[in-house]
Every structure is written in structure tokens, then in C-alpha cells.
Amino acid sequence: MERRGGVDARENYTSISIDALATSFRNKMEELLEIPPECCIYRVPLKRMVLNKKVYMPQVVSIGPFHCNNKELQRMEEHKLRYMKVFLSRTDKNLDDFISVMMGMEKRARNCYSGKIDLSVDEFLKILIIDSFFILETMMGEEGGQAFYFPNQVFDFKTDLVLLENQIPFFVLDNLFQLAFPGDPPMRFLEICVSYMVGNIIPIKDTSNLLKKVEEYLNLGHELKHFVDLLRIFHLPSALRIESDFVDEIISIPNAVQLQKAGVQLLKVASSDSLIDIKFTKGVLEIPVLIIQDYFELVICNILVLESCHYADQTYIAHYYFFMKMLVDTDKYAELLIHNGIIEDWLGKSSTVANILNKVRCQGVIYIPTYYLYDISKSLNAYCNVTRHKWKATFKRNYCSTPWMIASTTAAVILLILTFLSTIASFLAL
């Protein structure tokens, strides 16, 4: 009987525990926030953050709600108000007009940030308003050729404006700009932003088609989310994969030196609408120029995190850096691409280039079905497997790599022919 009582007690306890746990889980699930379709500004996953925290965290200025309580960034709050004051002096609209418009955008803007934002409507609006005016004046100051400075103080915050966790939704900035300057063309603010990014963040050499590229992207029905999204659009290939072109694997390729030994000619493309527009035709691999400079790692890492969080089935930038890392997996191979002009090393060390490309590649998440460089990778491997191409490359490398070697080889061939003819002549004279 004692055993039965023990069993009954355990059964009763189990029943109570199941009911309590089930109720607890239901309550927690009801408290879960649905991910709104507007969500586009994300916190960097911890596993990425630990790899290199500095490329994701603001160093000078907090933009948006994620880092608004960071005490190390508070000294810029006073200067934001100065920027706000200067911007308001540029327009005949008063502050009440801007606040009224911003209140109408509050819910949509809040939905753009991942996770719960523990700020009241007033607190959130205050951050949004001050930070938006700060960014607008930063853009206007650059655009007008008169950047806004403070006596004896220099704040280099431009890279903080392109961190994924440090964003204001683009529609907020654009609407405020249109309110401030109603007579300007609809795309005027976008033009100013493109000019700012090219002049301060990314060293793109050919900018003539860059604005047109962004406009065409938007005309396809896409929405520009924020500045990191703008930088991503800059890097997108000219033609995206469609569903019928989906693949089921990623093909590895030989490194740059192995390709060269197999007869593949590595050429730079001086002008291209995208870094990713790599071409391989008749043994020639054409690659747009990649510039490695101070902000390179920061910009690309934030783009890659945005890709993995928001464009998980369109990881084109991750495809590109995976491909490039296969070409350049040691310092020696980086030197080859630098020598060929495909990589411009503004940092001055080929070892740094290889290291940075490896760190960048580790930040990317590749979506295999849309692997953009699948066809090129497949063609490269097929070309390298043809023995005739290797023999031809070996002959060129050993006998025709310099003018002196070409002259020596030619002389040797002529001498061999003359010797052969002399032998034939002597034989016939017998």
C-alpha cells in the first residue's frame, strides 16, 4: 500500500507539473513578438561579434535605439543638437512640422528594428528625430562642400554611419528631407547619399553608373532599407540568378598560382558596375579591381551580416568573397593578384590582404542554390583539367616569359632548324 501511495503521489505531482509547465509555455508563446515585415535592422549575432567586435560597434556616435545608452558615446549627444540646429536653419519648416511627420512614422520605424525596443513612444521619437537631423546635416554639409566642424574638436564618425546596429530607416530620412526641401527632385536625397558613401566610405573608381544602378534596383520594386543596404546594392552583380538556374553545390577552384600554371590568364577589369561581375572566356579570367583600404573589413562585414539576416537566399557578396579567398589563400597568391592589378593594396602589406580576406570570408553565410559563381567555377576546373593548356602554359613560362627568353628561344629554334637542314644537305651530297 505504501508503494501504491508513493506511485499515486508521483502521478499526481507529474500531472500538476505538466499542467503548470504547459500553462507557462503557452503564456511565453503568447508574449512572443511576431517579426514584422518591415524588420531590416538587426543585432549582430554573438558568434560574429566575438570574431571582431570593433567592426560592428560604434566608436564615436550612437545612431538609433540599440546603443543609445552607451555611456562612452554620450559626448556626441550635445553635438547632435548642434547639427540639428544648423539643419533646421536650412529650411523654412519649423520643428513642429517635423515632429508631426515623425509621429506618423513611429510605429513603422520601430518595426524596422529586430527584437523588443524597451523605449516609450516619446523616448523612441526623441532618438529618431535627433539622430535623423544629425545624419541629414552630415549629408548636407558634405554635399555643400562645407562640412560642419567644431573648434579644436575632430570627430571621425563616418564609419559609425554604416554599421548595421547603428541605422535609421531610409524612409525616415527621405521623408524628412522631402519635407525640408519640397522643391527638390524625388531622388535628390538618394543622390546625396550615394555621393557621400563614395566620397567617404568606399573607394569605387567608376561612379558614373552607380546612382543609375541603385535607381534600377528600386524600380524593380525593391525598397532601400538603410545605408548598409545601399552599400550592398553597390556590390550586387549586374544579373541575379533566377530560380531555374539554381544549383545544388559549391565548386572549389584552384588558387591563383595554380590557375596561372594551368594556363589561365588573370586580368583586371578597370571599369565595372560590380565587383562580382567576374568573367571567364577562352582561358582568360577577368576580375574587377578590388581595393583593400582602411574601412574595407568594416564595410564588408556589416554587409555580410545584413545578407545573412535579411537576404539569406541572396548571399551574392558572400559568394564573391568565398571565391576570392579560394584564389588568395596565402600571402604569395595575394602578391600575384596585386602584381596583376586585380587587388589594389592601400594598406601596403600583402600579408594583411590575405588575412583580411580570410576574416571577411568567415563572416559570410553562403546560400548554395543561388551560388552566383557556380558556372565560372565549373568552367575554370574544366579548363585546368586539359593537359594541353598546362603544357602551353609551361612552355610560355619557361621559354617566352621575357623578351630575352623569347629571343633566346627563337635563336635556338633557328639554330636547330639550320643544323637539321645542314645535316640533310650533307646527307644528300654523299
Task: From the alpha carbons, calculate the radius of gyration and give it in angstroms.
Answer: 30 Å
Number of strands: 5
The main sheet comes to: 3 strands, mixed
End-to-end distance: 127 Å
* Tally of DSSP helical segments: 17
Rough outline: elongated
Strand percentage: under 5%
As laid out across the biggest beta sheet, the strand order is 1-3-2
Average pLDDT, to the nearest integer?
A: 83
Query: Structural class, from secondary structure content?
Result: mainly alpha
What is the percent of helical residues?
Answer: 55-70%
Overview of the structural elements:
The chain is mainly alpha-helical. Helix content is 55%, strand content 4%. The chain is built from 17 helices and 5 strands. The protein has helices at 2-31, 46-49, 76-88, 95-111, 121-143, 170-180, 188-200, 210-219, 227-235, 256-261, 296-310, 316-327, 331-339, 350-363, 374-384, 387-399, 403-429; strands spanning 265-269, 279-281, 284-288, 290-292, 343-345. The strands form 2 sheets. It has a 3-stranded mixed β-sheet. The protein has a two-stranded parallel sheet with strand order 4-5. Helix 4 (95-111) packs across helix 5, helix 4 runs antiparallel to helix 6 (170-180) and helix 9 (227-235) crosses helix 11 (296-310). The longest helix has 30 residues, at 2-31.
